[in-house]
Amino acid sequence: MNIPNKVMLENVSCPLGCPKSEEAILSGRDLLHDLPGTFTIIKCRTCGLMRTNPRPTPETIGFYYPDDYGPYLGTRVQQTETRQTYGIKKLLKPVLKRLFNFNTDTLPPLSPGRLLEVGCASGAFLHRMAGQGWQVEGIEFSGTAALAATRLGYRVHAGPLETAPEPSQPFDLIVGWMVLEHLHDPIAGLQKLCEWARPGAWLVLSVPNAGSLEFRLFKEKLYALHLPNHLYHFTPETIGRVLQTGGWTLEKVHHQRVLNNLIASTGYLLRERGFTGLGQKLVDFPKQAGKWHYALYPLARVLSAFGQTGRMTIWARKRAC
Ligand SMILES: [Zn+2]
After folding, report:
1. Is residue 72 assigned to a domain?
2. Is there a domain that residue 4 lies in?
3. pLDDT over 60 (residue 164)
4. Per-residue pLDDT at 82
């Protein structure tokens, strides 16, 4: 399938300033929404960082973010939801949290302060953190999702990180769930966040792990590949270098303990082989996993111990901007 006329492509060099020397890793297309276009991932021979190249320009990549783009839908806070939950749910919550640590949004142990979430979608995480005493702000690319988060009463910049205004006060904690890999210029983004952070502040990001076995196993069928929305494909090593250049020091890599990638990637594979029904069921697994996450936890824990669950949550600290 050809890339539509309204999508403009651009070629970019390695953001770490390496000399031009790269190899093609794989080519794939948008399997999430089945939008047209084939895209290639290349690897910088000097630093190992992988990027989608050529890629849609910042002005035209919106074509690959339709309104039903999954992350916008999954984070809506229900009107009836309050900051307090009562009864058995409230009693069970801390117990489950202790027994099952999925590492998906693991945070350093900090007292509440000022928090910024980059890519806050419809505001569910902001809402949760506000309930724990944090002063929260957000940045969200999608106008519809940003409006939903604003309606919850939070200050949210609707637009990309690049156009977000400087905050009135620095932040103690900045988070970005599955966002860094979407940025056209991750170094500039990290530097901007570094300038907005107080000395010693933490940055917590989750990203797919292109260093995992799943990446080599599923190749263009990898669920976390998400072409062409994912512009960079990090490994624990390359994200360390990118953070360093952006003013942050990588402190810790937590391998997530969920099997979304493994299951949905298997779904893509089965779908292609003609097992449409079962394949689609597995592709939809991340949207409706619910209690399955608990059942699959022991296996996810083993795989994560070897860094093989395909997603990581990383902690970094402000170094110097
Ligand atoms: Zn490089």
Report:
1. yes
2. no
3. yes
4. 45
